[in-house]
Amino acid sequence: MNEQQNLISATKTIIRWWKHILGISVLAAAVTAFVALFVLDEYYLSASTFYPLNQSVNDRSVLLNTSGSQ
Asked: Which H or E run includes 61?
């Protein structure tokens, strides 16, 4: 317990255990993806309302005009 902790010893530990760290990370990602795709319900629903900036576009005569000129 008298060993001093520094970046070099932490790097050596990570290099020594890289296969285990990578395996656990991939397993966690796979489990998370499975739960998100198949277990959880779709909770958020959205709807949008579009209001055009030019209010004359909503005029019936402009909407139903088939002559091509506005």
From this structure: helix 60-63
Residue 18 gets which letter from DSSP? H
pTM of the model: 0.51
C-alpha 46/C-alpha 36 separation (Å) is 19
Residue type at position 20: H
Element (H, E) at 25: helix 18-34
Taking CB atoms within 8 Å and a gap of at least 24, the contacts of 56-65 are none
Instruction: Give me the residue label for tokens 């005029």.
Output: 59
Kindly state the tokens that stand for 48.
């949008």
CA distance 36 to 30: 10
**pLDDT, tens digit, for every residue of 8-30?**
888 999 999 999 999 999 999 99
Residue 1: C-alpha distances to residues 4, 5, 68 (Å): 8, 10, 85
